[in-house]
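Listing S7. Sequence submitted for prediction.
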Amino acid sequence: MVNSRIKRYLLYGGFKDIHVAQNDTPYLVLEGHRSDVLSMIELLDSRFASSSVDNSIIIWSYINFSQVNKIDNCHTDWTRSLLAHNNVLLSGSDDCSIKVWNLSKFKMTYHKVQTHDDGVNQLIGYKDLIISCGGDGFITSWILNNDNSLTNDWQLKDDSIVWSICLVNEDILVAGLGNNNLTLWD
């Protein structure tokens, strides 16, 4: 049974802000980004992160819904995707790169990795793998090394933009494509 003192919140991104709703009622608006919010991810220690068209990442506390840290210009183009994985935060961008951030210091722990010939649309994690998809039609698997660097593991190519990916039952990769289709790989 869930402790009745625990409040449940719905977070959703809007234009330049994050809306917090409780019990289907608007509760709070968090301001901090200068443009559209594209991605949000829950972190450890009662925090979550958001990314934006303004190329920034903000770390928020969901204890008091305050801004904990912000890094402007973390990418040179839209910061489209976030992934919390093995105590690091990864960000994917329309600048065709993935960056790995140390969550305790909120600093880049390794130089950016040029990953795609077009923007990085989504990042997912599975065990020690990071999987990215992009506007170039590639789905790329990366090994997250102990020093937080990324090593290319394998690639799949589709004829269309790959907008989104998910892993089903740990062995089927599903891709949402720009041609209105889903493609499955096992």
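Caption to Listing S7: primary sequence and predicted structure tokens for the chain studied. Confidence is low (pLDDT under 50) at residues 1-8. The CA atoms of residues 34 and 185 lie 38 Å apart.
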